[in-house]
Amino acid sequence: MGAEFVWRMEDVLDVYAAPYDPKRPQVCFDEHLVQLITEKRCPLPPKPGCPERFDYEYKRNGTRNLFLFFQPLLGWRHVKVTERRTKVDFAHCMRELVDDLLPEADKVVLVSDNLNTHTPAALYETFEPAEAKRILDRLEFHYTPKHGSWLNMVEIEIGVLCEQCLDDRIPDEGTLRREIAAWEATRNEQQATINWQFTSIDARNKLKRLYPVISKSL
Fold first, then answer.
1. How many CB atoms neighbour CB 102 within 10 A?
2. How far apart are CA 57 and CA 40, in angstroms?
3. How confident is the model at residue 39, as a pLDDT?
4. Cβ neighbours of residue 159 under 8 Å, at least 6 residues apart?
5. 184 burial class (0-12, 13-18, 19+ CB within 10 angstroms)?
6. Of 105, 136, 107, which Cα lies nearest the Cα of 119?
């Protein structure tokens, strides 16, 4: 904790306080790992007064990564399923964001955690310099502080995804993609969003312990 934590926290909170601008849309971005699980035995079908029953034994069927884009001011989200979550995967996500998801934006204001794969350098490690710069010219990065991922609103949306869509065993990638697509469509149709109310002023009042103590000298 300290001055850098406070600076990054207030920077993100200022992003959230800004009004919606279609030319500068705010997007919260993060990733989530999903374990694919196959049943070893067929579940017993539900009966009146008795829900469907599953055996305690299961078979691990690998993992998949979810990249989640979330626009809280519009109640819009998109989930991208990938096999990995490397710098290359991140770079391709950023190109998809500016070229396919938000092609009309002049600059996408991106809130992300400071994971070592979530960096502008990742694009130069993936694309030719001109292409990397073209993409980065349309991105404005804002990083949550270390140990402060709770400041990223997409973390809340991932929690909703896990509760509403990923709470049952999912056996394979095809099923995962179908379940997520249905969840995404429903949430977007509802324009479900997050009522974020925590501001920099609140932080200064409620989290004083995180702020550096300024000594007063004569």
1. 19
2. 6
3. 59
4. none
5. middle
6. 136
Averages of pLDDT over each 10 residues, the chain, 218 residues: 90 96 98 84 63 58 94 97 96 98 98 94 98 98 94 96 90 94 97 95 92 74
Q: Are 157 and 184 within 8 A, CB to CB?
A: no
Residues 6+ apart with CB under 8 A from 104: 22, 23
Are β-strands 58-71 and 76-82 bridged in parallel, bridged antiparallel, or unpaired? antiparallel
pLDDT, residue 40, reads: 55
Token pair for 202: 């609140």
Query: The dihedral of CA 89, 142, 154, 136: what is its sign?
Result: negative
Residue with tokens 């204001």: 109
Residue type, 37: I
Integer Cα distance of 17 and 198 in angstroms: 9
| Residue 118 CA: distances (Å) to CA of 42, 71, 87, 163 | 41, 18, 7, 26
What is the CB neighbour count within 10 angstroms for residue 141? 16
The pTM assigned to this predicted structure is 0.87
Q: Kindly write down the DSSP assignment for every residue of the chain, as one continuous string.
A: --HHHHHHHHHHHHHHHSPP-TTS-EEEEEEEEEEEEEESSPPBPPBTTB--B--S-EEEEEEEEEEEEEETTTTEEEEEEES--SHHHHHHHHHHIIIIISTT-S-EEEEE---TTSSTHHHHTTS-HHHHHHHHTTEEEEEPPTT-GGG-HHHHHHHHHHHHTSSS---SHHHHHHHHHHHHHHHHHHT--------HHHHHHH-GGGSPPPPP--
